[in-house]
Amino acid sequence: MKDEGVNRRSFLKTAVAGSAVAAGSVVGSGTAEAQPRGAAAPQPGYAFFNPEEAAFIEAVVDHMIPADELTPKGTDVGINIYIDRALAGGWGKGDRMYVQGPWKVGHPNQGYQLPFTPAELYRAGIEQTGAYCRQTYGKPFDRLSAAEKQDVLTGLRDGKITFASGLPARTFFGQLYQNVMEGMFSDPIHGGNRDKAGWKLVGFPGVIAVHRENVAKFRNRKYVADPKSIPDLS
């Protein structure tokens, strides 16, 4: 999200520099999109999202990661597929989560404190966001203008939008935002970061992050890497 003068490229580069998602496994300005480089790759089918949820998540990732001269838009990078696969798998089902309560409002440093698996959080969050959009704008999120989408996302982020069910909107947005970042920078084997677009954006070399021999070679020059993913080494 372009906010207080921080542009998307600077934000993405700063975020990935300090994040482990670049190796393993933002919100865009909402302005008019440039055409993505090259032809869009075909999208595989969804394993978790129903058609309405898929329309929402595609609109979100394309707004957060709009196409420009450096990367394609979010759906062309595969961020929607990354999130869908994650939610359909063990993480989405909460396989390693403690889900037996007690359920009390915790301090932010205590982490996730809700009685929902990630899949349940997404399903409820998308449904409640859709209800807000229909009540406020008379149409679903994917049919909103760029400015309206921006208002909805910042409203979720800042807690200015509340859900009738009591589900904390900020928690839903925080999880969505984190997964968009992961889909942009995780290994392509997980469905996102197609053609290693995120890694190429920030100059990340991929799974073989050995820089020692390049310190002198690229001193005072831009580091240019041909990133390698897990499939490349399989």
Write the layout of secondary structure elements.
Layout: H1 8-17, H2 51-64, H3 74-77, H4 79-88, H5 118-137, H6 146-158, H7 169-185, H8 197-202
Which bin fits the share of residues in helices? 40-55%
Helix and strand sequence: HHHHHHHH
The coarse overall form would be globular
Largest β-sheet summary: none
Secondary-structure content class = mainly alpha
Query: Which band does the percent of strand residues land in?
Result: under 5%
Number of helices: 8
Mean pLDDT: 82
* Topology, number of strands: 0
Account of the protein in words:
The two termini are 36 Å apart. The longest helix has 20 residues. The chain has one domain. The radius of gyration is 18 Å and the shape is globular. The protein has eight helices and no strands. α4 crosses α7 and α5 crosses α7. Helices cover 40% and strands 0% of the residues. The protein is mostly helical. The N terminus is likely disordered.
Summarize the structure.
The chain is mainly α.
